[in-house]
Write a structure and sequence with these properties.
Distance between the termini of chain A: 54 Å
Order of helices and strands of chain B: HHHHHH
Shape of chain A: elongated
Mean pLDDT of chain B: 86
Number of helices of chain B: 6
Oligomer: heterodimer
Number of strands of chain B: 0
Low-confidence stretches of chain B: none
Low-confidence stretches of chain A: 275-290
Largest sheet of chain A: 6 strands, antiparallel, barrel
Number of strands of chain A: 12
Chain lengths: 290, 181
Amino acid sequence: MIRLSIPVRQALAKLTLPVLIAAAFGLMLLGKADALLAERARMALADALAPIFGVLAEPLGSVRAVADDAQDTFSLYSENARLRDENERLRRWQSVALALEAENATLKANLHWIPDPAPSYVSARVVADAGGVYARAVLLSVGPNHSVTKGQIALDERGLVGRVTELGSRSARVLLITDMNSRIPVILEGSRARAMLVGTNGQRPRLMYWTEGQLPAEGEHVVTSAEANAFPAGLPVGTVHYSSSNVPEVEPAARLDRLEVVRLFDYGLRGVVPPESNGSLRAQGPERQR
Amino acid sequence: MDKVPGIRPRPTVGRLLDMAARRGFPGSTTALMLLVTAAPLGVPGQAELQASIALASVFFWSLFRPASMPPAIVFALGLLADLLGYAPPGVGVLTLLIAHGLALRWRRVLVRQGFLLVWLAFVGVAIGAATIQWALTSLLTFRLLPPGPGLFQAAIGAGLYPALATLLTRAHQTLAEPEQA
């Protein structure tokens, strides 16, 4: 160790904090200049933690299940009545749906309709919330030899959850549709009007830029639109609900606050190029021209 | 090392290790708390809780045992918090370093005061930290973020501090005391 006189050492000790504060600003600039670096560091950390979180998730899940069970016992009677009602209603709808399905099949057969290819998917466990204070995202544990790519679409058993935005070797981050950076082209199922679904970091994303004169109706179903080639058409997103300040919002069909397992679909859509491949394309640019 | 005259046990390897562990206690427990609050606990407001715990812990140790919470450790903790909390890197580092600096500056006055005044000082720091984080995150993402989560974060920090300070005071007198090695 270098021997320094006491005044020099004291001066150095006083300098550490300002230098480190300057380094913090440097870090911010670096993070802004090279967003990829921050993303890599983050995913490396997430990769290291994902197995631990995966192990932790099971006992925590069972604890939550016990708590839920205890709550359910209290509402058993009213829940039963509600379910019987709903069952009755759904049975009626089922017969309608079956009739429509049959009719649809004959119409498609007559029209020589090209069927959509069946998409391949993998299921992954949600291991942690990956949003932080100012974002809405979840972390998935995907195992070491996964085939997940950026831009794949995540759905739970009820509807659209989000898209894969960051990818590590054993974890993936899915940006939820409620995040304020999320923009999803949608179709209002009743009026077939197009609109954008814009996340606000709140519980319900907002509907914007709908076709003029086609006001979204309360309770109308909202599905994805194939415009911009980022999503396939017709994935269930949610239902329109007007907020107290009369802004049309969408109540997500997916249970975003209690995601456990999501399915990642590969529709082979590359309409919106994820940031990383954009950067690497630029890096490969000159070679391609040669 | 010999600032206080007196008889003390011989510095054997075991004792030196023990002292090092006690010196490392504040930094390592703060890092551990950050990792635990990043786990899928399913607690509402977990992200805000994580940010508040880091701030409260760094403030407490900088105030009462600054030798065990040097600026370099604060920097590392801030970086860990940024990476775990998906904030733009550097934002958490800066707020923790500022909290550390303020705690050092107010040290001479605050250490002699009762708990209530320290808590009030921390409430001020928590509000300031949430404001800085909100402003910097807004600036670095080029969009005006809603101020709600920041306020919530400050409120959680203020509410959490008494409980955390009680635990940390215990540790301060026992586990983190190098003299007891």
